[in-house]
Structure formats: C-alpha cells, structure tokens
Write a structure and sequence with these properties.
Number of strands: 22
Helix content: 25-40%
Radius of gyration: 46 Å
CATH architecture of the largest domain: 2-Layer Sandwich
CATH topology of the largest domain: Beta-Lactamase
Largest sheet: 5 strands, antiparallel
Distance between the termini: 90 Å
Strand order of the largest sheet: 2-1-5-4-3
Structural class: alpha+beta
CATH class of the largest domain: Alpha Beta
Shape: elongated
Length: 680
C-alpha cells in the first residue's frame, strides 16, 4: 500500500488540526466569559454583561456555530453561513432538518439533546448537510444541550470535512487500484527491506513464478532465491545504487524455484530513501525464461552454422596440404626406386607437413586445448621481432613507439607473436602501395567503469595502425568470424584466432576503421607483478642424450615413431599402451639396471589410464620420477601448468626430432636421477 498520503490529503489534515486548535482556544475564551457573566442566560435573549466580547468571539470562530430551538435555527455565526451557503436572514427560523441529508436525519438525536439540556452527553458524529447549491457536504458535528433565552436549545458546532472526505475517498480508491494493480498485474511484484533483505510483500504472480506461497516468501530474504552468479550481480547493483551511481534500468537474474525449475526474470527496481539511505526496494519482475531458452537455441544454431563454415574451410585447407604431402612422398618413393636423390621431395613434404601442423595449432586455439602456456614476459622484444619478421622484404615499414618502462605481462609468447603476425599481415595486405604501419605499446590503468568489458587494473595497451584502404562498415562486425575474408587467397582464420588468443589471455581487442583512411587495432593485456622469465631459444639441431626412456601412448604409430627418434638420439626405449602398463613396468624395473630414467606420457588415453592419473601413481612409487607430458593439444591446466601436476616438461604433438631432443635434455637435467652412467 502507498506509504505517503497525497498532498491534498496532507493539506486537509493540516487544516483540520488548525481548526481544532482554534476551537480549543475559542472554548477556553468562552468559558472565561461565561465565568465573568451572570450565572444565567435567561435574563434576556442575547448575551449578558460581557456581551460584546462574547459575540465577537462566537461570530468569528473558525468553526460553524448554530443555535437550534424547537427544531428551528435561532442563531448562526459567519462560518455557518459560509458552509451552508445561505445568509443569516435566510437561515434564521428555518427548520434544521431542511439542511440535513435525508439519510442522516434519523441518527441525529436532536429532540433527546434538546429535552435534557446539560444532562445528556454531547453527540459527536459525522454527517452530511445540503448547501444552497444542493451539494452534499460532510461535517464533523458536536451537539450540546443548553439553555438559550430561557428555553431549551441545541448548540451545534460544525467543521467542514468535505475536502478531507474527498481526499480520503481518493486515497481509498487509489489504494484499491494499487492493490488490484499489484495483484492482477501480468508481472511479479515484490518489496524488499533494504536493511535486512527480507520480503515485505509479494503478489500472486511472483508466487506463481516460484511456487512459493506469500507466507513462505515473508520468511525468506531475497538472497535465498538468487543463484550464485545472480547474487553477485544484484549485490554489485545495489551497492552502486547505494552510492548513487548510475545503473541500467533493467537487469536479468536467475532465481531458485520451489521445484528447482530454471527461472530467469527481468527486473526493474525503484528504491525509497530515508535520510539519504535506501530503506525499501520495489521490484517489478517479468518471467523471461522462454526468451532465454530461445536465445540459447539461436546461439546453438549460430554455433552450428559457424562450425559448418569452419569445418568446410578446414577440409579445404587440409586437402590442399595433404595433396602436397602425399604427392611429395609418392614422388620420393618413385625417385628412390630409380636411384635418384629423394631429399628435395622429402624436404618439400616436411615443409608442407609443417604448414599442416601450424594450421592444426591455429585450430586448437578455438578449442579447449588452446589454453595458453603463460609466462611473465617483457613483451617489447616480442612486438618488435614479430612485426619486423613479418614485414621482411616488403615495401611497408613499421614505426615503433614502445614505452621504455613497459610493464611485464603473463602471456604465451608463441600465441601473442602469432597475434602480432596476423595483425601486421592484415595491415600489409591492405597497403599494396607501401607505406608505414604504426605499432605502439604503453602502460594504462583502467578504472572500474570501462566500456571495454575489462576488469579494473593495470594493462599494457598495444595499437597497430595502418594506412590501407580500410574496412567497409558492413564487413566490420564480421571480421572476427571464422573463415570470413574479403581478400583473395585469405584464410579467414587470422583475426578469429587473434580474437580468441587475446580473450584466453583475459584481454580485449577492438577495431576501428574507415574506408580510405585505414584500420586501427587496439589490444589490452593484463600486466603482472611477476618479473619476466628468462627465455632460451631452441636450436634447430638435435642434441644427443643417454638414458632409458619409457614411452606411453595408445597410438601404435606414435609409439613407433617416438621410439625411433629416441633411439637415433642415443636413448634406450620401451613402449606401453596406457598408464596401467606403464606403472607395472616402471615398478618392475625400479632398483635394477633396467630402471627408467624418464617417462613420456600421452595425456589422453581413450578407455585407459591417461597421463594425469598415471603421474599421481608414478610419484607415489618414485617421488623423484621424471615425467614428460605429451599431447596433441595443450589442454588447460595440464599442459599449460604441467609443473603443478608433477611433470618436469611438456611437448605438444606433432614434434620434430630436434624439438624432442631439447625437451628430453632439459627434463633429465632437472632430475636427481640424471643418467650419467651412460655415455653418448
């Protein structure tokens, strides 16, 4: 119900109080005059000594005063003529019942009051009178039996309450309409005490939404209904409202129902304040569950459509690459049969295979296996090297503007290098006539309210600006979509991959472009307090090693290939299919001359024990065991944080023999069981 009276009602109540105060004062003065006057008013009609003062007080009283004798009016004051609308001459000697509303005449005990002057209790009642315009007016009346000029009389004191009654009626109607609106509105409506979070009221629709009764609601707090994510959102929203900060008018929350159904509501909340602090929240809620479910279905359809486009592009690209690999291998086989040199064909097959591997790594960026392996890095050198390498031999130069005190960032250097390469390539292709690309990097601190959907904090801002032909407005919203490209020969994956990589780094990427003026990419990467880690370049030549290695992989082809590589590098090798076989063989050889110096574990073994479970059991057997995790994708968190799981190194498939040689050298060099007993 409304908590504040309408202004008209307030004014009427104020007027009534003023009148009551005036009446009290008037009666006090009348009493004083009566005490000073003769004890009886029977001496003559009118007033005795003190008549002039007495008459002035009565005549100008703030309430209407009438004297009624034998049912007729003997005296009226000025206020009475104003209320009834007739002059004194028109009222004197008129029957009082002529001015009383017919429905109220029977309950006014005029005769009883007049018959026993001073003996009966005063009548206090609210009744209606008819004024000169035939309008009905409400009055609060007090009837007293007294003597007047030697005869019984009724003293009538009237206060006009017509406006107050009208305000009360308006308020009643308003309250009725409000209750009907709340109860029958096609939306949930509830009120919450902002100090305690408890429900103050709730309508039937909200009960229908949730399955709870009104009584149950009043025993709950708002927090009892909100799911975890929504609770966080509503607390943040209310805190902003408390501080007077601007918040969106509407918000979406997921709430719990009595039967555990999923329910989403769209709410609009109004706060009421006292002394500057919010005390009550009134909320209108709409059930948008079907809308949310429809949005999810549309999103699924869009994902399937994008997946179809992506699959088509992948199939096309891999068919081209496989053509180069298969063609060169078959050519090498023919050349071998003829006794010709096969190295050129094998080198070409290896080159095309590397391109296939690069494409696979790009595709893995979009999957759960694309988690970056982050290390604290000073990114200035990465930016310069990536851009310079990409532009080598072109007509486009790069103008660098990199702050000297650039904050370190925690990134996967390889993935960020790929992002810079993709963006610079994009700029290069847009500047066929040559020109300059501007690459800038600096430190920025973002506040709590930011339009880039980033958490507040410290960031490194990277901008890449070209002078190319720009991007058409209709194409700009699609440039991060997979396999969308306006360039002939473009793969359509570069910008999509860049977007995904930056998001995986908890950063943000934006683009601005105008046709004929160029394109401006802006990247934000979170800064870190960690000092930059030292990096060592992996040489392209393979290094020999020594030791006995256990290879665990469910694919026979992989086991054979890895075993041959390790044998070429100087290691002794044994192979198993899964973790169960690996643990059994490792335990069997512990303490013997055939003990293993390291284990290479495949992360995922369909239907068997994979690397994550195997390393736990292995370390129980041998806490100093050296294990290298291997996988076809860098699944977070195992590959990207391998040390946390007990591994000494990680290698992602496919890998070359030189890459494997350095990984094994580093892994064996970190352990206490280094195989020094064997010679290279």
């Amino acid at each position: 119900m409304p908590e504040r009276l309408p202004d008209q009602m307030k004014e009427t109540l104020k007027t009534k109080k003023q009148l009551q105060d005036e009446i009290t004062e008037l009666r006090r003065k009348i009493k004083a005059v009566e005490n000073a006057a003769p004890t009886s008013l029977e001496r003559r009609q009118g007033f005795g000594p003190g008549e002039e003062l007495y008459q002035v007080l009565v005549e100008h009283a703030g309430e209407a005063i009438l004297v009624v004798q034998d049912g007729k009016i003997s005296y009226v004051n000025k206020k009475a003529t104003e209320i009834i609308g007739y002059s004194k001459k028109e009222l004197i000697a008129r029957a009082i019942v002529d001015f009383i509303h017919p429905d109220d005449r029977e309950r006014i005990r005029l005769n009883e009051t007049a018959s026993h002057p001073g003996e009966t209790a005063p009548q206090h009642l609210a009744c209606r009178i008819i004024d000169s315009r035939r309008n009905t007016r409400w009055v609060d009346a007090k009837l007293l039996g007294r003597k007047w000029a030697g005869q019984n009389a009724i003293l009538c004191f009237l206060i006009d309450t017509t406006e107050r009654k009208a305000a009360e009626e308006a308020l009643r109607i308003s309250e009725t309409k409000y209750r009907q609106l709340v109860e029958y509105a096609p939306a949930g409506i509830y009120e919450v005490d902002m100090k305690t979070g408890r429900f103050l009221s709730v309508n039937d629709v909200m009960c229908e939404y949730t399955g709870y009764s009104k009584e149950e609601f009043l025993n709950f707090t708002l927090w009892d209904f909100l799911k975890a994510d929504s609770l966080k959102k509503v607390i943040e929203r209310y805190e902003k409202m408390r501080r007077g900060e601007a918040v969106p008018a509407l918000a979406e929350y997921e709430i719990a129902t009595k039967d555990n159904r999923k329910l989403w509501i769209l709410v609009n909340t109004r706060l009421e304040y006292e002394n500057g602090a919010p005390v009550k929240a009134t909320t209108v809620a709409h059930n948008i569950t079907e809308k949310k479910e429809l949005e999810q279905e549309i999103l699924k359809a869009q994902k399937l459509e994008s997946l179809g486009v992506l699959a088509g592009g992948i199939g096309h690209d891999f068919n081209n690459l496989l053509s180069g690999i298969i063609g060169n291998i078959s050519l090498a086989k023919l050349e071998a049969e003829r006794g010709e040199d096969i190295m050129d064909s094998l080198d070409e097959a290896l080159r095309v295979s590397s391109k296939a591997s690069a494409l696979t790594r790009q595709l893995l960026i979009f999957s759960k296996g694309g988690a970056p392996i982050k290390k604290a890095t000073s990114i200035a050198e990465v930016l310069q090297d990536s851009a310079a390498f990409t532009l080598r031999g072109s007509k486009v130069k790069c103008e660098f503007g990199i702050a000297e005190n650039l904050w370190p960032v925690k990134v996967d250097v390889g993935q960020i290098s790929q992002v810079i390469h993709n963006l610079v390539i994009n700029a290069l292709q847009a500047m066929s006539q040559g020109g300059a690309i501007k690459l800038r990097a600096g430190n920025v601190t973002l506040a709590a309210v930011d339009d880039r959907a980033l958490k507040p904090g410290r960031y490194v801002e990277i901008t890449i600006e070209d002078q190319g032909h720009g991007i058409a407005p209709e194409h700009l919203p699609k440039i991060f979509d997979p396999y969308f490209s306006t360039k002939s020969g473009g793969s359509g994956l570069g910008l999509t991959m860049s977007y995904t990589i930056i998001k995986r780094h908890e950063g943000h990427i934006t683009v601005e472009s105008k046709v004929g003026e160029g394109t401006h990419f802006r990247i934000y990467l979170p800064a870190t307090e960690e000092p930059p880690a030292e990096t060592r370049a992996i040489e392209s030549r393979a290094v020999k090693g020594a030791g006995r290695i256990l290879v665990m992989d469910d694919e026979e082809d992989v086991r054979k290939t890895v075993a041959r590589m390790l044998l070429k590098l100087g290691y002794e090798v044994a192979c198993v299919r899964d973790g169960t076989e690996a643990i059994a063989l490792y335990r069997e050889t512990i303490g013997s001359a055939n003990a293993f110096d390291a284990v290479i574990m495949d992360l995922t073994i369909p239907g068997g024990m994979g690397g994550e479970q195997t390393i736990k059991k292995l370390l129980q057997i041998d806490p100093e065991a050296i294990a290298v995790v291997s996988s076809g994708y860098s699944n977070d968190p195992i590959i990207s944080s391998y040390e946390k799981f007990g591994f000494r190194a990680a290698v992602t498939k496919p890998y070359r023999i030189d890459q494997l040689s350095w990984v094994m050298r580093d892994a064996l060099g970190t352990g206490k069981k280094k195989a020094a007993r064997r010679s290279v």
